[in-house]
Amino acid sequence: MEYVYAALLLHYAKQEISEENLTKVLQAAGLQPDEVRIKTLVAALKEVNIDEAVKSAAFAPVAAAPAAGAPAQAQAAGQQQAAGGEKKEEEEKKGPSEEEIAGSLAALF
């Protein structure tokens, strides 16, 4: 978790999130940095808009209990998804979304 905090600190200070800068921040905090974790984090954060990730994490909606009309809504959503399936396939070829990258970052810690 300290690696993510160091990256957030660098981002807040408008500094580049690089291996060298992360190492310096962690050493200044009295920690022995792990080069592999630093390289992994820097590579993962290159594709992430940190401001958007922080906003979406801070205000993530809470899942509501399903209403009585949920089965009908699920069926309608399934029909819409079938119609838009071709577009999703095109989007998936572009690469991982920010949500997927943010989720993979959570797996690091």
Automatic annotation (TrEMBL):
Region (Disordered): 70-109
Coiled coil residues, start to end: none
Name of a matching Pfam family: Ribosomal_60s
Annotated family: Belongs to the eukaryotic ribosomal protein P1/P2 family.
Recorded superkingdom: Archaea
Keyword check for DNA repair: no
GO BP field: translational elongation
A GO molecular-function descriptor: structural constituent of ribosome
Protein name per Swiss-Prot or TrEMBL: Large ribosomal subunit protein P1
UniProt xrefs under NCBIfam families: ribo_P1_arch
Cytoplasm among keywords: no
Function comment: Forms part of the ribosomal stalk, playing a central role in the interaction of the ribosome with GTP-bound translation factors.
Lineage: Archaea, Thermoproteota, Thermoprotei, Thermoproteales, Thermoproteaceae
Keywords (A to Z) from UniProt: Ribonucleoprotein, Ribosomal protein
GO cellular component entries: ribonucleoprotein complex; ribosome
Subunit structure: Part of the 50S ribosomal subunit. Homodimer, it forms part of the ribosomal stalk which helps the ribosome interact with GTP-bound translation factors. Forms a heptameric L10(L12)2(L12)2(L12)2 complex, where L10 forms an elongated spine to which the L12 dimers bind in a sequential fashion.
